[in-house]
Amino acid sequence: MRGATQTKWLVAATAIALAATACSTSSKSTDKAASGGGTIAVQLGEPQHGLIPQNTAESEGAEVLNALFAGLVEYDNKTNEPKLRVAESIESPDSKLWTIKLKDGYTFHNGEKVTAQSFVDAWNWGANQDNAAEGLPFFAKIEGSEELSPGKDKKPTTDKLKGLTVVDDKTFTVALSAPFSQFKTMLGYNAFYPLPKAFFQDKKTFEEAPIGNGPFQMDGKWEHNQQIKVKRYDNFPAADGKAKLQGVTFKIYDKLETAYNDLRADNIQATDKLPISAMGTVKGEFGDRYIYKPESGVGYIGFPIATNPATYGKPEIRKAISMAIDREAITKTIFSGTRVPADDFVNPLIPGYRKGAMGDAAKYDPTKAKALWDTAGGVPNNTIELGYNADGGHKEWIEAVANQLKKNLGVEVTTKPFEKFGKILDALGAKQYSGGFRMAWSMDYPSIENYERPIFSKVAIENGSNYGGYVNEQFESLLDQADQAKSPEEGLKLYQQADDVLIQDLPYIPVYTYMSSAAYSKKIKNFDTDAQGRMNLDEVELAG
């Protein structure tokens, strides 16, 4: 689930994230440890819930898991192409039957060896609907997934995916129900991380102190709304690059302004989320230590189509709202140029993005918007509400959108702040909130498909991030055809046709795409963020 909005998707999610809960640190957060490397503190938002890779689809939890785990593949920071990490090889003759071989040397932080069984057990748990894992949709392509996830009011008939077979300690095979050329690309997402035996013995303890296989290990338990501490795992394979730092403290904030002031005072050494109030001055203050580059996120206004069809059920109403939003004004005035107006459901970093794909729907035209609104009959009581998470710096732009809609459509608009991002996600997931809502998505893996199925497919309604309850059978059919395309080029065209259906229906309104806005202190070097907005903490060093 990142960058500057907390999402459930990054997802999960994931999703894109800006959340947190609070406290300032002391000015002694960088220390030279006796064993070398030093320690630092960085900004984090409070994760939504327990830290299980298969059940984490928002950016704050994913940030921590990225330090604690190593996946089968990782993504090149320049090209976003998948590169082998824990996997020695990932091969398939037909994009349907895949053989995965593991490298030697990886162990969990409790000393247990990472084996093929570690991955198979983790995926079986994530695919079982009884566990209600948010990563469940990512296993839907594996043969036997319908038996583990038969749907609402039905029970799984097995606890294992029949498409997974352990060949030996270092090898397992994955049989998909149909060819899927993007499968290797998916495998860097945290839902595909391995799990140790200790997880299955005591899940509650694991949620508070995960045992991973990555460059850092937990240093104590998650101190909710305060901090999460990790330390270097010295048995991490040297070939993968041991962490340079001895330890990192993720300080949890509920206000970005507080975190930014702590960064300026060197009470923390890095943040990958900056408050809107800093955008006009951060470059002048931090110089080369201010990072500004494209990121994979897309920010939306979403609609609870299934929960509140009387208000949001007509595509014409949703299109009128989209045309009444002045994206240029919001990105330039509110965000000081740190966002870019969106013109597609797909982020520009991703192959398959088409400049201007949304056409008139993304063009600010108050006159046409009002005419379309009136022709469609407006909304009941001439009133709509926009919800947002108050812990993520969204108040200003949501209120700007509300004012634009009032002025351009003549509709009454109220705004509803939710204390934390997790709160609005919970309300939407339980179908307890019927207003429009601020949402954002950052890639789980670099594929156009990842901007479609996890957010807008039927399978993602109960087990995913389709908070609007959108269903379109043409969209579903095009996704299936694209998955099974004989070539990447053919598949890309079909995914773009699915994108065209979203543009026609506008279940969400893309408002802006993200630029990574991060900053770090003089006390560290080699700091960077990836396209998912995650910090490269294993490469960071003290500067002097």
From TrEMBL:
Q: Which residues form a coiled coil?
A: none
Asked if the keyword Signal belongs to this entry, the reply reads yes
Keywords from UniProt, A to Z, are:
Signal
Looking at the keywords, is Signal present?
yes
Signal peptide range:
1-19
Classify the source by domain of life: Bacteria
Q: Which residues form the Solute-binding protein family domain?
A: 82-458
Q: Where are the transmembrane segments?
A: none
**PANTHER family from the UniProt entry:** ABC TRANSPORTER SUBSTRATE-BINDING PROTEIN (PTHR30290:SF83), PERIPLASMIC BINDING COMPONENT OF ABC TRANSPORTER (PTHR30290)
> Can you say what this protein is called?
ABC transporter substrate-binding protein
